[in-house]
Amino acid sequence: MAIIAGLTAHGSSLNMPDIRVAPVVFSALAHCPETPRSRPMSASTTATLRHDWTLAEVRALFVQPFNDLLFQAQTLHRAHFDANRVQVSTLLSIKTGACPEDCKYCPQSGHYNTGLEKEKLLEVQKVLEEAARAKSIGSTRFCMGAAWKHPSAKDMPYVLEMVKGVKAMGLET
């Protein structure tokens, strides 16, 4: 489980717009009269981590009552992790705006007028300073986000230097 401890752009906190999110769709679907109810799963069933899901099994997740699904997720999580411990992560945008991707949820996409100004790749030293600050406040993971499909050949050596520097601090990337 990860918690974003700080969301920064060039070292300052971002002022995020007040975003309203629609109610969770899972609970609305799960409580429709025509939706079949799931039977509670045993702890041994829910503690099995799988990567071979069929389409029917994935669809079945959407019709389960939300609290049952939450319980199953919690049981699986507890089987593999300490339930009372979280990983603190810090996210830094190392290249902001004008991304060629068309991710509808992302303000970095160049396909929409989000008001986000395009900024060049941050200098390596600035990124490493932010990573050191993140570590000093308790982060164990430092995520570097960039508005691109892939780094350009020109930017790749700098990105590699950033990753090596962050790893040398003992942080996950």
Automatic annotation (TrEMBL):
<keyword id="KW-0408">Iron</keyword>
<feature type="domain" description="Radical SAM core">
    <location>
        <begin position="84"/>
        <end position="173"/>
    </location>
</feature>
<keyword id="KW-0093">Biotin biosynthesis</keyword>
<keyword id="KW-0411">Iron-sulfur</keyword>
<dbReference type="GO" id="GO:0004076">
    <property type="term" value="F:biotin synthase activity"/>
</dbReference>
<dbReference type="InterPro" id="IPR013785">
    <property type="entry name" value="Aldolase_TIM"/>
</dbReference>
<dbReference type="GO" id="GO:0046872">
    <property type="term" value="F:metal ion binding"/>
</dbReference>
<dbReference type="InterPro" id="IPR007197">
    <property type="entry name" value="rSAM"/>
</dbReference>
<dbReference type="InterPro" id="IPR058240">
    <property type="entry name" value="rSAM_sf"/>
</dbReference>
<keyword id="KW-0949">S-adenosyl-L-methionine</keyword>
<keyword id="KW-0004">4Fe-4S</keyword>
<dbReference type="InterPro" id="IPR002684">
    <property type="entry name" value="Biotin_synth/BioAB"/>
</dbReference>
<keyword id="KW-0479">Metal-binding</keyword>
<dbReference type="GO" id="GO:0051539">
    <property type="term" value="F:4 iron, 4 sulfur cluster binding"/>
</dbReference>
<protein>
    <submittedName>
        <fullName>Biotin synthase</fullName>
    </submittedName>
</protein>
<dbReference type="GO" id="GO:0009102">
    <property type="term" value="P:biotin biosynthetic process"/>
</dbReference>
<dbReference type="GO" id="GO:0051537">
    <property type="term" value="F:2 iron, 2 sulfur cluster binding"/>
</dbReference>
<keyword id="KW-0001">2Fe-2S</keyword>
